[in-house]
Every structure is written in structure tokens, then in C-alpha cells.
Amino acid sequence: MVSTTIHLMRHGEVHNPEGVLYGRLPGYHLSDRGVQMADRVAAHLSGGLDAPRRDVVALFASPLQRAQETMAPIAAAFDLPVTTDEGLLEAENRFQGLTFGVGDGSLRHPRHWPLLVNPFRPSWGEPYRQQVARVLGVVDRARDAARGHEAVLVAHQLPIWVTRLALEDRRLWHDPRRRQCSLASLTSLVYEDDRLVRISYTEPAADLLPGASAVAGA
């Protein structure tokens, strides 16, 4: 059997002083800490942190700026080109560009309440199953490109998390506060030939995560 590993990486922390749900909006780049997170993961994968160098031969990234910036040090560490793939985009969200909450957030306006009627789909944005389908499409392309080796795919929290839920045969609707997909984390899919045999999760930049504060967006 041929073993292939696909690392789904969430981007690093974003500069977002207004605390909006930035979604697919352009212009949201990594914060200084986000750059440190990206550098940390690049070092972790390339053997610079007392860990073995990973056998990475293919790189794919969401076209959004924060994902491209997160991938940059990994591409430099492995001297590989980056394939930009829209299948890794952030989920569509009709609260994009707004603050999300009850107090001064968008939920205080009754006009937004109809968007919350169906959390199972969800009614406020791109269906979960649609997100899973497009991410798994990129996983398939990456597995073909890296067969027998490893690939890194930089994407966004929600698409990564619902893809993991689907692969583990769990329900896709969930409490966002319970996602195991922190900033700059790696959700690693291990395949034997085309059969998924294991999912693992690591946080190479755990010590750089914001304390208990919420991070807006994904």
C-alpha cells in the first residue's frame, strides 16, 4: 500500500481590530502574531524544531490573503510552488463584514433574525455539505499530486472542521465554540492508497494562541 498524508492547516491570526466577520472580504492580512504562527508551522514541518522533516511535495492554498501569507514560509522552507485553489475558500456567510453578537452586533437588528432559522443547513450561509464537497475535491487533487508523500493545504476553520466531521461520520451542525481547529493548527488525514485510515490533530503554534479571547472570523 502507498501511504499519503494531507495536512489541512488553518491560517494564522488575522489583523482585525474592528472584530468583524471578514469571511471572503479582501484585505485581511496576518497580524504580527499570525506571521509568527506561520513561521512556527513552517519550522515544525521542515524539521527546524527538533522534529523530523516532513516529506512534503505539494502545496495548495485558499486564494484569500491570510491563507497565502500563511503558506509563504512553508513554500520557502520546501522550495515548492503553491497551487491556489478556490475549493479551499472560506465559507460564504451573509454576516460577512458585520460584527456578530447580541449587544452591539448584528443580532440586535430584527432584520437579521430570519438568517438564523435553520442552524442545521445553515440558513445564514453556505451549506455544510457543499463546503465538505469542495474541500474533499482539493484533498483528492492533493492526494494525486503527493501520492506516497505529503501535502499541505492552507484553508479556513469552518470548512476544515466540517470536513473532519464528515470524515468521522459525525453530524455537521455543531457548536462553533467546540471546534478543534485552532489558528495555525494541522488536521492531518492519512491515507493508505485511497482509503482514509487515520485523522490526527496538532497545534505547532499552541503557545502563540491568544489566551481565552475570542478570535473573530475564521
Automatic annotation (TrEMBL):
Superkingdom assignment: Bacteria
CC annotations in GO: cytoplasm
Pfam families the UniProt entry points to: His_Phos_1
SUPFAM superfamilies referenced in this protein's UniProt entry, alphabetically: Phosphoglycerate mutase-like (SSF53254)
Biological source species: Cellulomonas triticagri
GO molecular function: phosphatase activity
Protein name, entry field: Histidine phosphatase family protein
CDD domains: HP_PGM_like (cd07067)
